[in-house]
Specification:
The chain is mainly β. The chain has a domain of 51 residues. Helix content is 0%, strand content 38%. It has no helices and 5 strands. Strands 4-3-2-1-5 form a 5-stranded antiparallel sheet, with no helix packed on it. A hairpin with a 4-residue loop joins strand 2 and strand 3. The mean pLDDT is 80.
């Protein structure tokens, strides 16, 4: 999955902002489900309690083949 192929319902990991992250913090957070993809490159992701808008360059594909399809259930 590259920047052009992200679609609603895809699962992604979100890259942490390096300026705010402590040195030992994980580089990626998630997985999160994409709710919508806007034409300006913004993804709306579901964080359970709220939805967050992020730029698609921060989103990395999450492979369900290693953990199964029921990860977010």
């Amino acid at each position: 999955m590259n920047e052009k192929t992200k679609r609603p319902e895809d699962m992604v990991m979100i890259a942490q902002n390096e300026a705010r992250a402590p040195k030992l913090q994980q580089a990626l957070d998630g997985p999160f489900r994409i709710v919508s993809v806007r034409s300006n490159g913004i993804l709306v992701i579901d964080k359970k309690r709220y939805q967050e808008s992020i730029h698609m360059r921060r989103a990395k594909p999450f492979g369900t083949t290693t953990l199964g399809e029921d990860v977010m259930q």
